[in-house]
């Protein structure tokens, strides 16, 4: 049987998205499910991938057993690490043809409508990626807590550290302090530590909006956190600019919020992303699996 359905999977630390298309580019269905980073929990990642895919198929009017004839590209966080790429490679997935690549690869393809370019991505984590003349380069993306600076998890972690300093009397109990305590319903450092003992990156990332909002309201600690993150993103963008890609985009759930913290000269060489990461995954699926005419 010839494959004529193309499925793109974008699996990140907080959610998984699926996009189903025909060869001619017609969108048939989309699906969203939970976390799909195999580094954090491979079984949960596999469950989320299948769930998002089935939702996309269902929305397109297909039954789940059609997965077996679908051309699929999975762009997943964490598979740049060989150990976790091997774990995903060994998974007995339900798809027909299937290619595994990084979430950065498909995000870059999506941002530039299937063409080469460069991206900085800021969501739960952070990293940068370029594809120039077939050569791929990755910057950052080392995972939380060692990396992912300026990502949502990092913002939340910095906020919790500041709150602990507030409880210890090392800094004032400011607006950010109050926002975090209210959201977590805590009144002591012990309560904070107990609650955060088993936090995953997405749990830290849930605190990130408090930092953004407190900084916007003028909180000095929140502003210092944002300035630190913006300095890191600026360094990534400077490095990408040196490599002279055709286009550079900043993407991800926090992208629009970070742009306000970057200087105008930096924003002058940025381009708006054209399409989504899952679109990039579908485009790659077509490149890889389309029957030659």
Automatic annotation (TrEMBL):
Name of the protein this chain belongs to: ATPase
Signal peptide: none
CDD domains: ASKHA_NBD_GspK-like
Domain of life: Bacteria
Family annotation (InterPro entries): ATPase_BadF, ATPase_NBD, Euk-type_GlcNAc_Kinase
Organism: Shewanella avicenniae
Residue ranges occupied by any ATPase BadF/BadG/BcrA/BcrD type domain in the UniProt entry: 7-256
Pfam families in alphabetical order: BcrAD_BadFG
Phylogenetic placement of the source organism: Bacteria, Pseudomonadati, Pseudomonadota, Gammaproteobacteria, Alteromonadales
């Amino acid at each position: 049987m010839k494959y004529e359905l193309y499925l793109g999977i974008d699996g990140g630390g907080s959610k998984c998205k699926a996009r189903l298309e025909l060869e001619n580019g017609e969108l048939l269905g989309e699906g969203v499910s939970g976390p799909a980073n195999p580094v954090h929990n491979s079984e949960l990642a596999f469950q989320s991938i299948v769930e998002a895919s089935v939702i996309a198929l269902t929305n397109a009017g297909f039954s789940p057993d059609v997965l077996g004839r679908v051309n699929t590209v999975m762009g997943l966080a964490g598979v740049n690490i060989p150990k976790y790429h091997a774990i995903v490679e060994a998974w007995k997935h339900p798809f027909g043809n299937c290619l595994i690549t990084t979430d950065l690869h498909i995000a870059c393809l999506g941002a530039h409508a299937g063409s080469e370019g460069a991206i900085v991505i800021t969501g739960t984590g952070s990293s940068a990626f370029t594809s120039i003349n077939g050569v791929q380069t990755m910057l950052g993306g080392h995972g939380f807590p060692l990396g992912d600076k300026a990502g949502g998890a990092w913002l939340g972690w910095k906020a919790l550290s500041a709150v602990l300093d507030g409880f210890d009397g090392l800094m004032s109990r400011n607006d950010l302090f109050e926002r975090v305590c209210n959201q977590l319903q805590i009144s002591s450092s012990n309560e904070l530590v107990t609650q955060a003992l088993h936090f995953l990156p997405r749990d830290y990332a849930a605190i990130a909006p408090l930092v953004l909002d407190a900084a916007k309201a003028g909180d000095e600690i929140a502003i210092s956190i944002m300035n630190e993150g913006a300095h890191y993103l600026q360094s990534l963008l400077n490095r990408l600019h040196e490599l002279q890609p055709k286009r550079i985009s900043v993407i991800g759930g926090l992208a629009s919020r970070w742009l306000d913290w970057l200087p105008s000269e930096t924003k002058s060489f940025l381009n708006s992303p054209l399409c989504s990461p899952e679109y990039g995954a579908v485009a790659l699926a077509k490149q890889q699996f389309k029957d030659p005419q």
